[in-house]
From TrEMBL:
EC number of the protein: 4.1.1.48
Pathway connected to this protein: Amino-acid biosynthesis; L-tryptophan biosynthesis; L-tryptophan from chorismate: step 4/5
PROSITE patterns per record: IGPS (PS00614)
Domain Indole-3-glycerol phosphate synthase: 4-262
GO biological process, alphabetically ordered: L-tryptophan biosynthetic process
Protein name per its UniProtKB record: Indole-3-glycerol phosphate synthase
Lineage: Bacteria, Bacillati, Actinomycetota, Actinomycetes, Micrococcales
Amino acid sequence: MSVLTEIIAGVRIDLDARRSILGQAEIEAAAAAAVPALDAYAALGGHTDPAQRDHTLHVISEVKRKSPSKGALAEIGRPEDLAVAYEAGGASVISVLTEERRFGGSLADFDAVRAAVKIPLLRKDFTVEEYQIYEARAHGADLVLLIVAALDDAQLRGFLDLTHALGMNALVETHTAEEIARAVAVGAKIIGVNVRNLKTLDVDRGNFARLASGIPSDVVIIAESGVRGVADVEHYAQHGADAILVGEALVKDNDPRTAVKNFGAAGTAAKPQRAG
Ligand SMILES: O=P(O)(O)OC[C@@H](O)[C@@H](O)c1c[nH]c2ccccc12
């Protein structure tokens, strides 16, 4: 069984437990009652007219306690404090892992961050049922994660449509050219290229440059994983990233505010600027 399959098995068990407490009708009502979602596509520099795109390399900063590949990453006593530092450093979006078993995340972490910052939030989890999308919205999420490798085309399309119907955006995560084609075909507006293969956990940073060139220009392109420092940020920016998604390097830094600021500045300086 691949790592992804194992993770999803646990996610389904935990999801069923939450649903037995708060049923489908209740979660839909809670989603409808939530404060409207922020426009994460715009916050990441997206624009339907590519000529209007900004020249910034946006940073999505992640609250990540542990991972299947690295184990424990950092003691995050107060996720809200980390999030406030990210926001102060200029993060465009904050990602909060809510998967519990392998990443040590929770919806409680998400709620603490939501209460502390004003910028758009990504509820980072393994979405396999509509319930989780309503749940994300009910907790004030602006973005959800849809991992193409975990979904068939009908699910991908249905989940993306529901996400949009609830006023949110989806970060549609890919790892191969075929997955990018599937993401584009269903109308994804924010596509992430994860350089970590979720089936094997291998990281191949060169994969980003190879794949990003095939993504249409009205789509926001996110380079996910593997940022160790400024050189990796510059590499992704030079090869077409509009944003980077960074976890480990930020949670391990003693000064996450400055780290976000430095990554954003270095990436923006390295990003190819349009003529004129
Ligand atoms: O810690 P890193 O290497 O900076 O990676 C962050 C992020 O890309 C990674 O956490 C991630 C990418 N896709 C995911 C899907 C599920 C859980 C986690 C992830």
